[in-house]
Design goal:
Layout lengths: L3 E5 L7 H15 L3 E5 L6 H9 L3 E3 L11 E5 L6 H9 L3 E4 L3 H15 L2 E6 L5 H7 L6 E4 L2 H5 L2 H6 L4 E6 L5 H14 L4 E2 L5 H15 L3 E5 L5 H13 L3 E4 L2 H5 L2 H14 L6 E7 L5 H15 L9 H8 L9 E9 L3 E5 L5 E5 L21 E10 L4 E5 H18 L3 E10 L2 E6 L2 E6 L18 E10 L4 E5 H19 L5 E10 L2 E5 L4 E5 H4 L16 E10 L4 E5 L7 H8 L5 E10 L2 E7 L2 E6 L20 E10 L4 E5 L1 H54 L4
Parallel strand pairs: 1-12, 2-3, 2-4, 4-5, 6-7, 6-8, 8-9, 10-11, 10-12, 15-17, 25-27, 30-32
Antiparallel strand pairs: 13-14, 13-16, 14-15, 16-17, 18-19, 18-21, 19-20, 21-22, 23-24, 23-26, 24-25, 26-27, 28-29, 28-31, 29-30, 31-32
Helix pairs in contact: 4-5, 9-10
Length: 715
């Protein structure tokens, strides 16, 4: 048996007010808010370091003016000065008040009694945040006293002003022994004074329990931060009862005293001959998480027990050295001896037969898995639910054992920022439950990765990766985020992408989203954009005409901007560029048939060949004046146009319908002129013919007359 006994004080660790403030911060982180705290939310480096790692920023009152618009400020548990809270309101900053209700109560007492003419005396540490905040609510005279001696130094002044009304309050974490001395003197010497017992009940209970434990301990460990007023007072109280008192912040601090503790242990072993163990007590301040208390307890056993390995816990040591018993709530190992439809039988190494619900073996098995979750010969850890000695049976739970073991693993995984695997077990209000390492992890809907409008039920029995964002051992509660794991995975892939990317490099990716101006393609860790103009050689008005979300595209890198994390992609195949074919077959001045594809206020775009459009400017649509393009051209109209300009670099082609119309008009005029000339010639020719005929007729008449003369006899 071990020659020592470790006892943790009945009231140790987080108090109500501290737990409330810390929970408020973590809930705000989970809600995705940009969180700031006015000062440290509590005086504990472990907590503040964890919050800092999650992006929570600590600010001072002077920083309020510089806060971004989306800020969400949380007031610490100690409270803040009245004017600081007024400043938050005036600046329109969103905030939540995490001030401990007991501190708020003192604010009200001080404000009310000072307004009614009372001089207020506040017992506490004048440099402590809580005291500074309380002081701001006093509208009359307020004096801060560190202890009874400090108060008595002001006694003469009080005597000279006996007509004044007096009120007495104390800091919530004030030393209860000192407070009792003060109040006893005040009641005896100032019976008309108002005394308010404002020392927090949790503080009273904690200090009383610590004093009681220290009085019967050989060694006392007081855990807390040097910055924590209540922790320092707790250490002093323990020291007043136990000479061997050690004040530490965490388990690491305990190791500094390891040689001294061993000396105490060995001296005790030499003195004791009756087997009485060394009695070690542990207490902790209000700002100490239970996790740290447990670490101190385990580390203490490691220091004093030289024959155990560093990674063994105090609990494991006790299990190894104690007599094996079967009792309700105990943990046992068991080997499966039979698998049935509804239950599994287990040998736990005693006279009892163990029974386990068959369904308990399926919690962390994916739906797509064909592997049997339990087979004869498998060994598992179990928790004893019920013992029936009369019939030699025990009811066991694998889930409960997994949950405890799993919670330890989850705590370790969170500390190491590990990405975990799990199986979605069920849908609950506000999210889903994932089973991982045997423990239940709640994933809020906002952290599930399911798009808005999607169904959480689609995740059931799916294997998922997630990160832990909160683990509370004392509440047996773990909260995770699938989105955070996806984000971390993408961050890693993004870094790898930038290490290997190059202009022209080809990728295969899935279309993640579509906008009016292009499609975003997942390249593995980063999204690249294919601009609308890069999706098709033909003119399109929206990406959805070519692609849809979920499509797989072969793309290549066109442009990179590492500083802005932007990637521009190409999708069209350069070898199928229709402009290459166009350049080989068409030239300026050539008349071509075109199809009108779109109408604009300044003209119309017309397709010459698939993938190549030209612009018919409004001034080139008709040989008449055009003020409204739609009155002359309609979409899908076929028209003849002349190529008037080609700019292959800019892929711009200018067309003119007017030029063809003007040429057609000139040709018609020339034809009409030719017809007039021809008609004139014909008229002239006809006139010449008439004239010639007349001459012939006249000649004929002359011949005829001559003939007549010749034929007449001479007289």
């Amino acid at each position: 048996m071990n020659n020592y006994k470790i006892t943790v004080s009945e009231h140790a660790g987080f108090c109500f007010g501290v737990e409330r403030a810390v929970r408020l911060v973590y809930d705000s982180i989970i809600a995705g808010k940009n969180v700031f705290t006015l000062g440290e939310i509590i005086h504990n480096n472990t907590v503040t370091d964890d919050l800092n790692a999650r992006g929570v920023k600590i600010i001072k009152a002077a920083d309020i003016d510089d806060l971004p618009p989306d800020s969400f400020v949380i007031i610490r548990s100690h409270g803040i000065p009245k004017e600081t809270e007024q400043k938050l309101t005036e600046k329109g900053i969103n905030y939540r008040d995490g001030t401990c209700p007991f501190v708020k109560h003192i604010h009200k007492i001080v404000a009310d009694y000072s307004q009614n003419g009372y001089d207020v005396f506040l017992f506490g540490d004048r440099l402590h945040d809580e005291v500074i905040g309380i002081s701001s609510f006093c509208e009359n005279s307020l004096k801060i006293c560190s202890d009874l001696d400090d108060f008595l130094n002001n006694f003469n002044e009080i005597e000279r002003n006996r007509e004044k009304k007096l009120a007495f309050v104390a800091q919530t974490t004030y030393n209860i022994i000192d407070w009792e001395k003060c109040t006893e003197w005040i009641r005896k010497n100032l019976p008309e004074a108002e005394i308010f017992n404002t020392v927090c009940s949790a503080t009273t209970e904690r200090q009383a329990a610590a004093i009681k434990l220290a009085a019967k301990s050989d060694v006392m460990i007081a855990v807390g931060s040097e910055k924590s007023s209540n922790s320092r007072k707790l250490g002093l109280l323990c020291q007043s009862q136990c000479q061997n008192t050690f004040f530490i912040e965490n388990a690491l601090g305990l190791k500094r005293f390891s040689s001294q503790l061993k000396d105490i242990f060995f001296k005790h072993a030499e003195i004791q001959t009756n087997g009485v163990p060394l009695k070690i007590g542990i207490t902790a301040g209000a700002s100490v998480p239970c996790k740290i208390i447990e670490e101190v307890k385990i580390t203490m056993s490691e220091i004093l027990q030289n024959n155990i390995e560093d990674d063994e816990s105090f609990e494991a040591l006790l299990n190894a050295t104690s007599t094996r018993k079967v009792y309700k709530g105990g943990r046992v190992k068991g080997i499966v001896t039979g698998v049935h439809n509804n239950e599994v039988t287990v040998d736990i190494g005693t006279k009892h037969t163990g029974y386990v619900d068959y369904d308990e073996f399926f919690d962390d098995v994916p739906a797509e898995s064909d592997e049997e979750p339990v087979k004869v010969g498998n060994e598992f850890d179990f928790v004893v639910v019920q013992v029936n000695d009369s019939d030699g049976t025990v009811t066991l739970s694998k889930r409960r054992a997994d949950a405890k073991t799993g919670m330890d693993k989850l705590i370790k995984a969170k500390d190491e920022d590990e990405t975990l695997d799990g199986v979605v077990n069920s849908v609950v209000k506000g999210g889903v439950i994932v089973m991982s390492k045997g423990a239940r992890v709640f994933i809020p809907a906002s952290q599930s990765g399911v798009r808005q409008g999607g169904k959480l039920e689609d995740l059931i029995k799916k294997s998922v990766k997630f990160k832990l964002i909160e683990v509370s051992e004392e509440k047996n509660k773990a909260v995770g985020s699938i989105r955070a794991a996806s984000s971390a995975d993408r961050d890693g892939k993004r870094e790898k992408f930038w290490e290997t990317v190059a202009i022209g490099k080809k990728y295969t990716g899935e279309v993640r989203s579509i906008t009016n101006y292009g499609a975003f393609v997942d390249l593995g860790g980063i999204d690249g954009m294919v601009h609308l103009s890069e999706l098709s050689w033909s003119r399109i008005t929206h990406p959805s005409q070519i692609v849809k979300v979920g499509d797989t595209l072969e793309v290549y890198i066109k442009e990179l901007d590492r500083e802005k994390n932007r990637v521009s992609l190409g999708y069209k195949d350069p070898d199928s560029d229709p402009y290459v074919k166009f350049a080989a077959e068409y030239k300026v001045g050539q008349d071509v048939p075109v199809k009108i594809v779109s109408i604009t206020p300044f003209g119309a775009f017309a397709q010459i060949v698939p993938g190549v459009d030209g612009l018919v400017h409004i001034s080139q649509i008709s040989d008449k004046r055009v003020t409204n393009v739609g009155e002359f051209l309609k979409k899908d109209d076929i028209a003849d146009a002349r190529i008037t300009e080609i700019d292959l670099d800019k892929k711009r082609i200018s067309l003119s319908i007017k030029a063809i119309l003007e040429d057609t008009g000139a040709d018609e005029a020339a034809e009409e002129a030719a017809e007039v000339v021809e008609a004139a010639v014909e008229v002239a020719e006809a006139a010449e013919a008439v004239e010639a005929a007349a001459e012939v007729a006249e000649a004929a008449e002359a011949v005829e007359a001559a003939t007549e003369v010749t034929e007449t006899p001479a007289e």
